[in-house]
Amino acid sequence: MQLNASRIKVLQAQDDLVTDMLKSASKELLRISRDHLTYKKLLKTLIVQSLLRLKEPAVLLRCRKEDLQLVDLVLESARNEYANKARNQNNKNTLFVPIT
Question: Are 76 and 48 contacting, i.e. CB atoms less than 8 angstroms apart?
Fold first, then answer.
């Protein structure tokens, strides 16, 4: 019985930490979204990271209505950065076998 109570306390503590982190992240994101220069950089970085993680030939990008103009501004730059990074990642994975 004590073991279960102990596990429940641990799970509750973990849940509390995650909840606090989500609240903190939401507040920070709201603060950053008011600073257009920082937010613009963040959007571009997040778009590039997402494209690199997805590794899909076509992607549908969804954003908040209030971010649409900012996303339009960074989209071409994000595409170019993604293309460069994807090309570099492919080069790193190339295996050269010596001729024998």
Answer: no
Structure tokens that stand for 37 in this block: 């220069």
Count the Cβ atoms, other than its own, within 10 Å of residue 93. 6
Q: Report how far residue 87's alpha carbon sits from residue 84's, in angstroms, rounded to the nearest whole number.
A: 5
Nearest to 33 by CA among 20, 24, 42: 42
Residue 100: what pLDDT? 58
Q: Which residues of 31-67 are buried (b: 16+ CB within 10 A; e: fewer)?
A: eebeeeeebbebbbeebbeebeeeeeeeeeeeeeeee
How does pLDDT run across 67-96, given as a tens digit for each residue? 999 999 999 999 999 999 988 876 555 455
